[in-house]
Fold this sequence. Notes:
The chain is of the alpha+beta class. The chain has helices at about 40, 45-60, 80-90, 95-110, 180-185, 185-205, 220-235, 260-265, 265-280, 295-325, 350-360, 365-370, 395-410, and strands spanning about 10, 20, 25-30, 35-40, 65-70, 75, 115-120, 125-130, 140, 150, 160, 165-170, 210-215, 250-255, 335-340. Helix 6 packs antiparallel against helix 9.
Amino acid sequence: MKIILPNFFEKRNTQPQQEKRSLLGGVSLTYGTGTSQTATQSMQLSAVYRAVECITDSVASMPFEAIKTLPDGSKEVDYSHSSYELLNKQPNKIQSRFTFIKTLVTNVLLNGNGYARIIRDSNGNAIEIRLLNPNEVTMFISQDESTTYYSHKSSKNYIASEDMIHVLNFSYDGLRGVSTLQHAATTTSTATAADLQAKGFFAGGANLSGLLKVNSKLDDGQAAEIQAAWRKTLSGETGTPNGIVVIEGDMEFQPVSISPADAQMLESRQFSVLEIARFFGVSPIKLFDTTASTYSNVENAQLSFLTDTISPLIEKIENEFNRKLFRPSEKKFMECRFDVMALLRADMITQADYMAKLFNIGGYTVNEIRKKLGNPKYEDERADRPFIQSSMLPIDFQYEAITNIDNNSKV
């Protein structure tokens, strides 16, 4: 369908112009060498697949909650707000919250842009959030770059910016994101070539290619017959790999290919893992490259992953949802926030140490800790009172004791 643009709008691609579209939903990346590789093909690389899985699973596993700011400045989860069901349970009729967030972040990493359309009721409340294929979304921006609209086949009209969640990956202009694979094009193409080389090497029975020199003159039929017999004998599929070939006196085999050792195949594949880890901002340990791992740096790698990779990404998603999900009258006291503590759920020691330290300074009450752990609350009212470490007394008891001491000293 042909789209007629208004005079004051110009069409902007949401992907760099050198990218081509793929029917498989991935972006086709064009390299300087003249070769191309889709996002789907890049995901066949174990390092790329694991990096994307690691990042998307980590973000999707965190509860995404609607937080309300109370008059006294404190914050609490608003379970009664209409957006709570959308953010933390089911954003639309066909996807769970986990699948929605995971796919959104996957689109951000592999396509550069993640899109989700907000469906509202007559009062402006969000009632559904629909994930959109990035390849089917077109951005329109005014010439003064003050207003943006979007188009998608699901809507006959333009979609206003406030109704479109648009999460960008790395961006040069702040309007469109660039796929991580676009920057890692050379690395992923080299890694793919190394995998194909390894596949071809072992599929051929780990035999070298070369020339079979015959001193006498052969016609085309004889040459083809000798070639077929050679391939049949040493093929990894039809013959016996690394078998024995009988060569007559006037024949000589001369290898012409580079051996895997000379090509440093293993070193190249290992280096590609490190390069891919750098582009995606994850430690090689996260990609199961344990060549230089120790107990201490595994722990540091997890901390670095949370602070350097996950934290900026979830901040980006939170900002976009906070700007557009709530009605204008709600933006002053409502916000969306990921619960990062969910990532520590499997690390019981770290979680217990964190809660114990906050409990000792009155940061958590007994019942607040039990609530986070999913345990029922104590009915004793003292379980809802904060304590400090000094004698483990309630805070108001400690203040009363200090006040009495001061009053007695004055007397």
